[in-house]
Design goal:
The chain has helices at about 1-15, 15-55, 60-75, 80-90, 95-125, 125-135, 140-170, 180-190, 195-230. It is mainly alpha-helical. The radius of gyration is 22 Å and the shape is elongated.
């Protein structure tokens, strides 16, 4: 065991492996958080189109496109999506691997968030929408001012789970030459073929990140519940 710790210390401290770990931690958080932000934007738009498509024939075509989009990105592994974007869509393009990862994770998240937001919108009593329209509000204003605030409160826990899932999925970002946490610790492990300590430390770092995210999500959820009571 002492030999393994010495090998890990040598790679992590003496040879500067901690620099890759810090860069990997930063990139992991960037990919997960920005991916979720992009996913919320795309997912909300898709969900609105899908819901409106049931009431407006003109929007049904866009709703069908949204259905295809969600089916494709939910029906294929994210690592396959990364490889397709890296080696096919962006082949020959001078695009940083981190940007590629953020884009792919955002598109992937958008497919899941669209279903989350659609469920949140449909969970709001239809009477709320009808009341807004009765008051003379447009469909867009009714959704923005009345439906969305209630829907967001309903889906905060699920969006928190999506953030946690994205964070864990970033472990495959290294396939497009992005320095994420998994790749950083893998470089340390393969330098001297001592895998136990680096991978246990990798698991510990992910566990701490997810624990912090869980605490933050629960805090936000409690605050929203308190504001709703008021």
């Amino acid at each position: 065991m002492q030999v393994m710790w010495d090998a890990f210390y040598d790679q992590f401290i003496t040879k500067g492996g901690y620099k890759n770990v810090l860069e990997g931690l930063r990139n992991t958080l960037i990919i997960a958080i920005l991916g979720l932000v992009i996913g919320i934007i795309i997912g909300t738009l898709v969900a609105c189109v899908q819901v409106a498509g049931k009431r407006n024939k003109v929007v049904r075509v866009f709703a069908a496109v949204g259905d295809v989009y969600t089916a494709v990105f939910r029906g294929t592994p994210i690592i396959v999506q990364l490889l397709i974007f890296h080696f096919i869509i962006f082949a020959g393009a001078d695009i940083d691997g981190l940007i590629e990862a953020v884009l792919v994770f955002g598109l992937n998240s958008g497919a899941y968030v669209s279903e989350i937001m659609r469920g949140g919108i449909l969970s709001v009593d239809i009477g709320q929408t009808e009341a807004g329209r009765t008051l003379g509000l447009s469909y867009a204003t009714t959704m923005l001012r009345i439906v969305f605030p209630q829907a967001i409160k309903n889906v905060v826990p699920t969006l928190g789970n999506e953030l946690i899932a994205l964070t864990k999925d970033t472990s495959v970002a290294g396939y497009v030459a992005t320095m994420d946490l998994t790749r950083a610790f893998r470089l340390i492990a393969t330098a001297n073929y001592e895998f136990i300590i680096p991978y246990l430390m990798l698991a510990l770092v992910y566990f701490v990140i997810i624990l912090i995210m869980t605490i933050v999500v629960r805090f936000v959820e409690r605050r929203m519940r308190k504001s709703e009571r008021r």
